[in-house]
């Protein structure tokens, strides 16, 4: 867990996006970067919730959802939404495909 904390402590450096992407590769680069940033915040949320920082974990989920929304990744958004709803009520039916998202199994 300490190595994960070290990575999360360097968030500004790890999540920097250059705005000067060549036009030819702009859309492909945006999709890749936003997918990676969405995944970064999804895993950050998993770490925070596992360490009893639920509020910060939910905020990280919302950041992940924003990045997935930028690239119209409905699956990414649904995956995280499932985890948020299931955290409040484990008996709710899942909207997505049951893939692991933000929160660890409890």
Number of strands: 0
The domain count comes to 1
Helix content: 55-70%
The global form is flat
The arrangement of helices and strands along the chain is HHHHH
User: In whole angstroms, how far apart are the ends?
Assistant: 17 Å
Helical stretch tally: 5
Rg calc = 15 Å
* Poorly predicted sequence stretches spanning 5 or more consecutive residues: 20-25
As an assembly, this protein is single chain
The largest sheet is: none
Average of per-residue pLDDT values: 77
Structural class by helix and strand composition: mainly alpha
Q: Indicate the proportion of strand residues.
A: under 5%
Keyword list:
single chain; 106 residues; mainly alpha; 5 helices
Write the layout of secondary structure elements.
Layout: H1 2-9, H2 11-14, H3 26-50, H4 54-70, H5 74-88
Structure description:
This protein is mostly helical and 106 residues long. It has one domain (24-106). The chain is built from five helices and no strands. The chain has helices spanning 2-9, 11-14, 26-50, 54-70, 74-88. Helix 4 (54-70) runs antiparallel to helix 5.
